[in-house]
Amino acid sequence: MHALAAEHFSNAKTDEDFVKVALKMHVKQQDEMPNLKDIKKPKCEVKAKWLLDIAKKDFSRMSLDKTVEVYNTAMSLALPGSELLAHAYANRSIVLSNAAMYEESLKDIEHALKANYPDNMKALLFVRKAKNLFALDPTADIEDTLNKARQWALKMNDKEKSKLLKNLEKIKTKKYKKPVKERDNRMFVPSSPNDNPIIKDTLAAIAIKYSEKFGRHIVATRDMMAGEVVSVKRAYALVVSCEYKLKLCWNCSKHCWSSVPCETCSNVIYCSEKCRNVAWKDYHDIECSILNGLLSSIHCYEDISLMSLRLFIKAIKEFGTVKALYESVQKIDSTADLIMKSFTDGIYDDKKYASVYPLCRKPMNLRFKVQCALKALQYMYFMALTSDVFGKKMKSMDELGNYEYAVFVGKLLYHHTVLSSTNMSAIHAPSTNSELLNCGGLLNPLESLYNHSCDPNMDSIVCLDMSAFITLQTIKKGEQLFISYGQEFHHMPTPKRREELQNIRSYWCDCPACINNWNPGHDFPSAYLIYTNQIYDLNDNAENLSKAANKLKLGKLGQMCLQFLYKILTCQFALRLLKFIYDYNHSELLDYASNFI
Ligand SMILES: C[S@@+](CC[C@H](N)C(=O)[O-])C[C@H]1O[C@@H](n2cnc3c(N)ncnc32)[C@H](O)[C@@H]1O
């Protein structure tokens, strides 16, 4: 269809032209469109039971990761509150406990107890709970838990009861593996400054400016030190790639061990009830049925298309109806000032849709435009069939074709797809080696206003759905704050860097390093990436941090600074920052750190 389509689109110029052609094509070829009959029922206990049996029987042949993924899938298919779901929680708690993930196992036990777990088996859960608590802390008081196990043992038959009571006696004498804990790096993300009266939740030291050469950009309104936290933001929207949707939390992208499934669809899981509730309130209540229709029919989605849909849903949530959204978009379109376009009630608030809609788009070729238009229409069709976002559920492409806002919605989805391909930052899956695997993307509107420099004076660190922006060099009042759009530019000659950015990003780089023609051999203050390889291959923990500090030959004071930084930042980030400042701004950092040590 895509090859044929190019012909139809040959005269299309504007977004509207592309959407109208795609709409016409879809209406004509509606027999080819998936219909309601193809849409699967969200939950399926038979399949859930089958998968649960596989997880139970084959766990010794599968990696922990794979076993947990099979459990996640089984649980996503089980009915909420069912005994099957309770069994799945209970069985996964054994796997997690055996893998020394005692905290995760405890969470599963609580879920099994809250669900419909049979009374005659509850004693087993309390035994496991006592074991987990003891393995985590041998001084913990586990008497209450042991008593609960004894009470529930009364519901067992005599043989099982006597076996359980014997096991109970051994809990405090057994040796357990050292607890394995996954660190949630968000704990180490510093809190966000929020003293800027114009740009919400940022440091007062920055402002948004516009120039012919750089478009919108961010400048310092006072002299800044290296190491200043400019903003810490939760992403406006985050999407998890299709192959990770039953591994990572749909809301924050945390790797899930003791996950909870969506209670309505069987497509996504969450790291906690909190994330599930946030997602449901923010977007998944609408997205759930659309995603189910989509995945039943086309089995897979692309990150930028899902992001496009998510932006649309978030906008609908903000404005209430398609009509109100249409009016708001018209208002933004009619505002001539590029900076003011993205303001809401006189301030720049990147939790509002106005900060998203006017983001820049890179030029695209015809093929990509055609794909974006066809995808936009496909997603709009699923929205029409499975949700009542357009006032009521629709039954056919014809009905959608006659909908008064069809072109507007198609255009918006098309615009979001292009905008996402320009502005989304990748998120990375946890991996056992140093390889960085993309597992989704997030959109952070303020980040999209930073221009690129081959010698950036800012760095961002992404911890799940949070992004922190920190200055890496001293920045003088009036100078621009730059991030790097790629990572390895300092070792390339100027023409090569500029050519590469032109090829990938479609603009000629006018950053200070390019304008001043800095070439390899020049001292790029930001050439931190020389060290990143050493840092990426380290696990993010304190032991490795000190190993890395030794590698970097930091003196005693340097090591102390590193420990201090580690308390507020992630290991990787603390190291990068320290190494940097150690080389270029040593005395400043030491002055700063001495206030805290
Ligand atoms: C993500 S946007 C950054 C914000 C943008 N200036 C705006 O007005 O929305 C990326 C675009 O900014 C411009 N840009 C970013 N870095 C630049 C640089 N070093 N030199 C020239 N233009 C740059 C290019 O037009 C690029 O396509």
Automatic annotation (TrEMBL):
Coiled coil: none
Protein name, UniProt field: SET and MYND domain-containing protein 4
Xref: SUPFAM superfamilies: HIT/MYND zinc finger-like, SET domain
UniProt-listed InterPro entries: SET-MYND_domain_protein, SET_dom, SET_dom_sf, SKP1/BTB/POZ_sf, TPR-like_helical_dom_sf, Znf_MYND
Pfam family, one: SET
The organism's place on the tree of life at top rank: Eukaryota
GO cellular component, as recorded: cytoplasm; nucleus
